[in-house]
């Protein structure tokens, strides 16, 4: 062990770090206070050594004892002044993440916690302050996850940040691949067509299905000239001298800027509001020749926005006609709606006016979620925090979705969760859920799902009735339509508990009846009110036998220096000493004995003052009389109807200490030297 040297010319921050490192070494070596004082003075050099020589002389002249605690106080006063501590407190108060990563922000946050003990000692305040300093994108996600501790808040923020970085990296890679993989003209597509010409059409379709994530699919003999030559489009195009440009979105034989799919229209008829698979003119178009401008476009896209089917009912999302407000996108993976609408309604508003909304709970991919049925929403949505918490997988939309709310706020998204399973008991709904920043609900079911399952809303009773064309008819009762408390079966309860959810047991008490019971209403007890008093009325009287402390012969008085206490503990010590002095349980002492005190936190959060009498206990003669057996005591209770017990909060204080043993109960504090006249509790 090589303790660091302190010269005295370091900054306040270095001085504070040096003092804590020395204390850490002493704690690990388990040195007592006298040895700590001797060793720490040997570590002082130059101006620090000269300062200590002058300070120790001044302390001796004023009659103040030089102890480890005295050195700690005068050192901090000299090298770590209150102005430095106040500056660190202000830095902690205005600390924010800014450009720091979550790990860097957490390290700086933990370093400043030492200067704000009123926050460091309270787990909830520490967690709340950490979350408030996060950047806006992380703040909302961590806040909705409701961390129960500071450690959980840090872990959640790191997990979300890493997920956001990973998603951004994947998007950058995809965008780079799209920028570099777009065909410029005849070259790449012609060679691909010439290679695919040697395969049968059935094999080409299998290859296209297996490469579902490839941007283009082989066109086969679609562009091959009918000739006996083995070469196809590549050779023909070269001989003609014309450049054939293929669409980068659908693979059709036209430029990307002329593709009607970019504008969200049907690939068959060119009209807005539906896809080619549900086009009303599909039957006629299959028998007739396709128009010149749209030839082959219905088969040109290798990946389509697959609509989930439930029974026989197709899923048909509403799509606003017209171009996207963001123009042409560089990610042509899945076409999606360019504009959507959702009602802005918070959970607090829903609880205040339950008759205005229909909501409850369901399972989204077997994860419990708060769901809202919104007939004013054009699409269905899933919250960003729910998505991150459960690690769900989404696919990118071709265009950015702009979601309008009644309060004028526009939200944006470019990800969608395909074929999401929403399970309500034994019934399930399939929905495409757009990922959106929602704060009060995990999932919003919009008109796309409600119309797909032929749902009708009973606003008066708060019921959503589902009447699909095929399958069982069923009703969903809103959270406030049937019962104030949503009920689950025993099997569902065990399933939720096995997934790590918290369970609570709640039982009702009649507060009015319990509070009306008075001491005078209890038989037998009402005849002895002094026995059952809340507080001791005064100093206990002299009794036949007082409490005595018998020591091993030859034991010398034991005295130890007081322990270090935090500012909050010093304030609590002052309060408890004043209370004991007022009751007469302690008095100022001149005893050569002296034990240190410390505080122990109780379950309710309060602090109990305890005196370290371990050295005194070692020198005390142990009692040899046998203790009664618990089983025998219970056997003696047979036939009894009224029981009483000693309240240990004040039971010890009812016994006086023998006069010649009072000096042995002395204890040392910052506020003076005291001794107990009654038995000490704790």
UniProtKB/TrEMBL annotation:
Pfam families: Retrotrans_gag (PF03732), RVP_2 (PF08284), RVT_1 (PF00078). It comes from Dorcoceras hygrometricum. GO terms for molecular function: aspartic-type endopeptidase activity; nucleic acid binding; zinc ion binding. Residues 266-280 form the CCHC-type domain. Residues 162-241, 311-333 are annotated as: Disordered. GO terms for biological process: proteolysis. Gene3D superfamilies: 3.30.70.270, Acid Proteases (2.40.70.10), HIV Type 1 Reverse Transcriptase, subunit A, domain 1 (3.10.10.10), Zinc finger, CCHC-type (4.10.60.10). This is CCHC-type domain-containing protein. PANTHER family: LDOC1 RELATED (PTHR15503), RNA-DIRECTED DNA POLYMERASE HOMOLOG (PTHR15503:SF45). Keywords: Metal-binding, Zinc, Zinc-finger. Residues 214-227 have a biased composition (Basic residues). SUPFAM superfamilies: Acid proteases, DNA/RNA polymerases. The keyword Hydrolase does not apply. Residues 171-213 have a biased composition (Low complexity). PROSITE patterns: ASP_PROTEASE, ZF_CCHC.
């Amino acid at each position: 062990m090589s303790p660091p040297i302190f010269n005295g010319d370091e900054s306040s921050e270095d001085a504070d770090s040096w003092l804590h490192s020395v204390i850490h070494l002493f704690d690990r070596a388990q040195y007592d206070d006298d040895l700590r004082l001797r060793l720490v003075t040997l570590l002082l050099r130059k101006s620090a050594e000269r300062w200590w020589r002058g300070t120790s002389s001044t302390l001796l002249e004023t009659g103040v004892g030089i102890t480890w605690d005295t050195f700690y106080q005068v050192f901090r006063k000299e090298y770590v002044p209150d102005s430095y501590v106040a500056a660190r407190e202000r830095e902690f108060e205005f600390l924010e993440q800014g450009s720091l990563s979550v790990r860097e922000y957490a390290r700086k946050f933990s370093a400043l916690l030492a200067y704000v003990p009123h926050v460091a000692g309270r787990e909830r305040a520490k967690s709340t302050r950490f979350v408030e300093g996060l950047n806006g994108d992380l703040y909302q996600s961590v806040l909705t996850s409701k961390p129960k501790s500071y450690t959980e808040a840090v872990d959640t923020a790191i997990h979300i940040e890493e997920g956001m970085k990973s998603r951004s990296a994947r998007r950058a890679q995809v965008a780079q691949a799209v920028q570099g993989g777009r065909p410029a003209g005849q070259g790449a597509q012609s060679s691909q067509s010439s290679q695919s010409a040697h395969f049968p059409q059935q094999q080409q379709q299998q290859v296209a299905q297996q490469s579902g994530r490839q941007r283009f699919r082989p066109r086969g003999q679609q562009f091959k000239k009918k000739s006996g030559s083995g070469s196809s489009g590549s050779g023909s195009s070269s001989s003609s001298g014309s450049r054939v440009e293929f669409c980068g979105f659908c693979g059709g034989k036209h430029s990307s800027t002329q593709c009607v799919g970019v504008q969200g229209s049907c690939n068959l008829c060119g009209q807005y509001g539906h896809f080619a698979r549900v086009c009303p003119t599909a039957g006629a178009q299959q028998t007739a020749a396709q128009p010149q401008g749209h030839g082959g476009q219905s088969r040109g896209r290798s990946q389509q926005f697959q609509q989930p089917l439930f029974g026989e009912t197709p899923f048909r999302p509403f799509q606003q006609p017209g171009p996207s407000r963001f123009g042409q996108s560089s990610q042509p993976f899945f076409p999606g709606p360019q504009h959507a609408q959702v009602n802005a309604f918070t959970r607090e508003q829903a609880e205040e006016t339950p008759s205005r909304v229909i909501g409850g709970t369901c399972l989204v991919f077997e994860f419990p979620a708060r769901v809202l049925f919104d007939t004013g929403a054009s699409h269905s949505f899933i919250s960003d925090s729910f998505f991150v918490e459960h690690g769900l997988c989404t696919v990118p939309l071709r265009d950015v979705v702009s979601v309008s709310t009644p309060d004028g706020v526009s939200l944006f998204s470019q990800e969608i969760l395909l074929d999401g399973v929403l399970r309500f008991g034994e019934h399930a709904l399939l929905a495409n859920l757009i990922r959106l920043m929602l704060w009060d609900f995990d999932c919003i079911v919009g008109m796309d799902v409600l119309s797909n399952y032929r749902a009708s809303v009973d606003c008066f009773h708060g019921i959503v009735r589902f009447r699909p064309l095929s399958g069982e008819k069923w009703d969903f009762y809103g959270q406030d339509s049937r019962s104030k408390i949503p009920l689950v079966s025993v099997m569902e309860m065990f399933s939720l508990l096995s997934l790590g959810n918290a369970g609570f047991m709640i039982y009702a008490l009649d507060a009015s009846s319990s509070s009306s019971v008075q001491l005078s209403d209890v038989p037998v007890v009402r005849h002895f009110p002094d026995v059952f008093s809340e507080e001791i009325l005064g100093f206990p009287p002299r009794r036949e036998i007082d409490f005595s402390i018998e020591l091993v012969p030859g034991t010398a008085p034991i005295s130890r220096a007081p322990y270090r206490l935090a500012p909050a503990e010093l304030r609590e010590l002052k309060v408890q000493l004043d209370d004991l002095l007022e009751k007469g349980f302690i008095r100022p002492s001149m005893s050569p004995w002296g034990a240190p005190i410390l505080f122990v936190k109780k379950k309710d959060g309060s602090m109990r003052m305890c005196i370290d009498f371990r050295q005194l206990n070692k020198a005390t003669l142990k009692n040899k009389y046998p203790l009664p057996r618990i089983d025998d005591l219970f056997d003696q209770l047979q036939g009894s109807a009224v029981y009483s017990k000693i309240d240990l909060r004040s039971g010890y204080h009812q016994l006086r200490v023998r006069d010649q043993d009072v000096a042995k109960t002395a204890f040392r504090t910052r506020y003076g030297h005291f001794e107990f006249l009654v038995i000490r509790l704790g």
